[in-house]
Amino acid sequence: MKNWIERQKKIIDFTLSSLLRRKGKNGALILVYTLVVFLLASVMFFVQALKREASLVLKGAPEMIVQRVVVGRNDSIPLDYADRIKEIRGVASVKGRLWGYYYDPVTGANYTFMVPEESPPEKGRITIGKGVSRARFIDEEDEMEFRAFDGVIFNLTVGQVFSSESELISSDLVLVSEDDFRRLFGTGKDRATDLVLRIRNPRELSVIAQKIAELLPDTRVILREEILRTYDMVFNWRGGLTVVILFGGLMAFAILAWDKASGLSAEERREIGILKAIGWETSDVILMKFWEGTAISLSSFFVGILLAYVHVFFLSGALFEPVLKGWAVLYPKYKLVPFISAYQLGTLFFLTVVPYTVATIVPSWRAATIDPDSVMRG
Amino acid sequence: MIELIDVKKVFNQGKPNEFVAIDGVSLFIEANHVTVFKGPSGSGKTTLLSLIGAMARPTSGRIKVMEREITSLPERFLTEVRRKVFGFIFQQFNLVRGVSVLENVMLPAYPLEEGYASLKKRAMGLLDLFGVVNKAPSKVEWLSGGEAQRVAIARALINNPSVIIADEPTGNLDSKLSQEFMDTLGRLKEDRRTILISSHDPIVHESPIAEKVILVRDGRVVDT
Amino acid sequence: MRRANLFLIFLALGLILVSLMFLHACFREKAALPSLREREDMVRRLGLTDLCLFTEASYTRHPTRADRHTPFQDYPMSPDYFPSGSILAPPEMVKR
Questions:
Q1: Summary mean pLDDT of chain A
Q2: Contact (Cβ atoms closer than 8 angstroms) between residue A143 and residue A157
Q3: In this complex, which of C4, C18, C35 lies closest to A9 when CB atoms are compared?
Q4: Which of the residues B13, B94, B102, B119 would you substitute to probe the A interface, choosing the one with the greatest number of A C-beta atoms within 10 Å?
Q5: Domain extents for chain A?
Q6: Position C78 pLDDT exceeds 50
Q7: How far is CA A153 from the centre of its chain?
Q8: Which H or E run includes A157?
Q9: Same domain for C53 and C30
Q10: Nearest CA in chain A to B105
Q11: In angstroms, rounded to a whole number, what is the distance separating the alpha carbons of residues A219 and A192?
């Protein structure tokens, strides 16, 4: 065993000497490689962590939501729909919910207004998310101006600000009382934005959804599992920017590997000939090429994923922020909970380290098997 | 010690540029002797040496090294023979560029299981023996012709071979260095090694050290 | 120091750091459980359905509740108005 290690080490010695001969080229190679791994791993970590957050946190989402669709768009729903739905067997409760978007011209931000089911703020007071607080530089007991649907301006006092820990779900929220909501948005007392249902037996969800669709053809039903599935698909591999990054990354690898695989230079061939002439077996040469590929790819892999981890979980994916923020004014501040799996990293390993190492070995195979006497003949 | 039985070597067999390099050679090379292969360029000396040194396989015929037939050995064993028995000094030296002198000398033994420290010691010893030990960390490109020659010899000796094969060793050297080279070979012969040289340089085949001179012409041995 | 040894130490270090990374993730995940639960609780209390990530437009802020029409704006092939629209895949329901 010790001898085997010694043999590997000696071959590694020569491999490193060989690589160090072209410091510039190999240095650039490692840099590019590390960068690509860093990008891919960052995207991977970020997306996984967000997906996980969504799947854990949105478990508490409502079981069933009923929306009214008019001319293909969501419209307010009459509350007497709720009465009709309540008659369906299996429905435990139906509640009208009020929520909507408010565009704040002062900051250019969009806020989500909501009347919560439990303990809404008292009239004249609001609870706001940390993002709103930041955007408007306001805190508890400050007043905020709002412009109602009819142009009238009135003030609401900030009662509470949501914690920064909850920013991922509450950053842009403004919780308001029912009266204030209707005053602000002009929603009639007989209407709500949508209906939230509680079902007695979860196994009957789809049956009840079906019945509602038949009963009220101008409605649409959203189930909790669909909510969770949507977030599972967010940042889908096929989605826009992720595809670009992935594709770019894989292209970079293909180029690196192609450069290796497109054959050896005359100098490299000669060198292999010399090695064989002085007594190296074909397997020794292949081993050396293996270490050559591994030295570069494994080093880059380690550095790349470690940097990606720091980037995503210590720096909150700072490089992605401009992309994710897009044109939004309000962007939540959050620290993602690290969620990484050996499976993910294994996949990345197989997509990056293995092809490169193989691409280094394969073209040398042929050269390694020729008779060394061609070297003798100069 | 080394026996060749009706050995033929044909290059590009079956193709229009087919070339018979060795055309039926039978030889016996004695141990602990210095044998020189003399002949014009293109006569097949180099090919003969590479066949003897287990670097290439003959198209037909048999080769025995120390009673053991190597003609049909699988590649792995052939390399083992090559490594253990033979030490090569090439005409162009064929040192690995960009790598230090020391590493070049140790290179033939890298795939083996010997420890780095003891290998290094031996390599330094050889470099010292040939007076180039202070060049050990230098890159081989910086060596003069004579220094490179000596490093090439040191490398050939690292695995302590019993047969040394030198192909046109004085081709790139002046007379003084050529003479020095022959003296070195003489010392090696004292060491109980078998030496094979191919050369058309008179300094070599007229040297008193050359015990046997074999004339090679058109792929055949003409006289002994 | 001998190059091979340096390199192997580097690799070993890499392996150790990667293991530490996993450990750190595990540790942080456990430590984050209470705040995760708090968020879940909040979602339940307030009846929320979406993460507050993209506040540019309604269908990016609430992709789970987006209507069929909005993602296509004026006409079905109209380009996304918002950068985040290029990141989000269309929600499940719209595809049905």
A1: 86
A2: yes
A3: C4
A4: B94
A5: 2-57+235-376, 61-233
A6: no
A7: 40
A8: strand A153-161
A9: no
A10: A278
A11: 13
- Residues C25, C44: one domain? yes
Q: Is A324's pLDDT higher than 50?
A: yes
Q: Rounded to whole angstroms, how far apart are CA atoms B196 and A286?
A: 31
Burial C57-77 (b: 16+ CB within 10 A, else e): bbbbbbbbbbbbbebeeeeee
Look-up of token digits 């690995």? B96
Question: Cα-Cα-Cα-Cα dihedral of C16, C21, C27, C32, to 10°?
Answer: 170
Question: Using the beta-carbon criterion (under 8 Å), do C87 and A12 form an inter-chain contact?
Answer: no
Q: Tell me how far apart the alpha carbons of residues A289 and A312 are, in angstroms, rounded to a whole number.
A: 34
Which chain B residues are within 8 Å of A277, Cβ to Cβ? 55, 88, 90, 94
Which chains reach chain B with 3 or more Cβ–Cβ distances below 8 angstroms? A
CA A136 from centre of chain: 28
CB atoms < 10 A from the CB of C38, how many? 14
Q: What is the span of the domain harbouring residue C57?
A: 49-96
In tens, the pLDDT along A227-271 reads 888 877 766 654 556 667 777 777 777 777 777 766 777 788 888
C59 and C29 together in one domain: no
Q: Which residues of A249-285 are buried (b: 16+ CB within 10 A; e: fewer)?
A: beebbeebbeebbeebeeeebbbbbbbbbbbbbbebb
List the one residue out of B71, B44, B27, B49 whose CA is nearest residue B165: B49
> How many angstroms separate the CA atoms of B66 and B86, rounded?
12
Q: Across all residues in chain C, what is the average pLDDT?
A: 77
Q: Is the pTM of this model over 0.80?
A: yes
Q: Are residues C58 and C90 in the same domain?
A: yes
The domain at B2-221 falls in which architecture? Answer: 3-Layer(aba) Sandwich (3.40)
Tell me the average pLDDT of chain B: 87
Residue pair A116/C46 in contact by the 8 Å Cβ criterion? yes
C65 Cβ under 8 Å from any chain A Cβ:
yes
- C7 and C35 co-located in one domain: yes
Please answer yes or no on whether B96 and A372 come within 8 Å at the CB atom. no
Report whether pLDDT(C33) > 70: yes
C partners (3+ CB pairs within 8 A) are A
What residues does A144 pair with on adjacent strands? A156
A10: which chain B residues are within 8 Å (Cβ-Cβ)? 106, 109-112, 116, 119
In this prediction, residue A375 carries a pLDDT of: 60
Give me the helices (H) in A314-327, please.
321-325
Q: Are C28 and A337 an interchain contact pair (Cβ–Cβ within 8 Å)?
A: yes
**Do C44 and C56 have their domain in common?**
no
Write the pLDDT tens digit of every residue in B101-145: 999 999 999 988 888 999 999 999 999 988 888 989 999 998 988
Decide if pLDDT at A298 tops 90.
yes
C17 with C44, same domain: the answer is: yes
> How much is the pLDDT for B171?
78
> What ipTM is given for this predicted complex?
0.88
Q: What percent of chain C has pLDDT over 90?
A: 27
pLDDT of residue C68: 57
> Distance (Å, rounded) from C-alpha A179 to C-alpha A115?
9
